[in-house]
Design goal:
By secondary structure, the chain is an alpha+beta fold. It has a single domain, classed as Butyryl-CoA Dehydrogenase, subunit A, domain 3, CATH 1.20.140. Helix content is 60%, strand content 10%. It has 7 helices and 5 strands; from the N terminus they run H-E-H-H-E-E-E-H-H-H-E-H. A hairpin with a 3-residue loop joins strand 2 and strand 3. Helix 1 runs antiparallel to helix 5 and helix 2 packs across helix 3. Plays a role in negatively regulating the permeability of cells to small molecules.
Length: 244
């Protein structure tokens, strides 16, 4: 094997490993989107009710999004989290003190919720099914796992190539990484579109802002790494075959 092809193969493997780690970390963390709002110190009956509804298994899309807006929420592919006062009292503190502590409470999306239909008017089951948002949500959930699976399968083929001391099988690895990059890019695009459509339905309060978090950024970085790894794998295998 020519040193040029061996070097390209090693660089492609490193890029593939980094992109796999980034993708796995992105799937497993809860910071795809973050909301910034004033900390709610008032533990009134209304706030207690919102917290209870948020952690309920029957919470609909509008219910948990209202809580996310109000309590510095973060959303991942698997979980949603809010930040609430650690010690809940049935009165309003006169002023905030340095000892005021908050704690993060998270609730996992069940498989039923992941595949549940989205409604034209969030929370209103009589408003009809919003097919676009429904399939965007399902794609943003499924595509990252497809991407991760393709990269793992490509790694197995690459391992076989190393055992056989041949670059020929890495063409398949390159194609799998190309497909994985497309899946990752599709997942990111679906997530952005879904968030924008959601905010058109449920406008953010005046004192609340939202931004994409570092989990989302990891997925965005993973996609070009997958494309670069794919290009190196295919180039090394194809050029080595031609010279041979």
């Amino acid at each position: 094997m020519d040193n040029r092809f061996a070097t390209a193969f090693v660089i492609a493997c490193v890029l593939s490993l980094i992109s796999t780690i980034y993708m796995a970390a992105s799937i497993g963390t809860d910071f795809w989107y973050e909301y910034r709002s004033p900390v709610q110190e008032n533990s009134s009956d209304l706030n207690k009710s919102i917290w209870d509804e948020f952690i309920s298994d029957e919470a609909d899309e509008k219910t948990y999004n209202d809580a996310l807006f109000r309590y510095n929420g973060t959303v991942g592919l698997w979980r949603r989290c809010i930040t609430i006062p650690k010690n809940m009292h049935w009165y309003s503190p006169p002023e905030r003190t340095e000892s005021f502590d908050v704690v993060t409470k998270c609730v996992s999306f069940t498989l039923t919720e992941q595949f549940m239909e989205k409604f034209v008017d969030p929370g209103n089951h009589n408003s009809g099914i919003d097919l676009l948002r429904t399939y965007l949500w399902r794609c943003q959930f499924l595509l990252p796992f497809v991407s991760l699976g393709l990269m793992c399968f490509g790694a197995l083929i690459g391992l076989c190539a190393c055992i056989c001391r041949s670059l020929y099988p890495t063409i398949a690895t390159g194609i799998l990484h190309l497909l994985a990059g497309l899946c990752t890019l599709g997942s990111v695009s679906c997530y952005v579109a879904g968030i924008e459509l959601l905010h058109q339905k449920l406008e953010l309060p005046d004192n609340v802002s939202g931004e994409f978090g570092w989990s989302f950024c990891l997925a965005c970085v993973s996609a070009p790494l997958q494309f670069m790894a794919s290009a190196l794998f295919i180039w090394a295998a194809h050029t080595n075959r031609k010279e041979y």
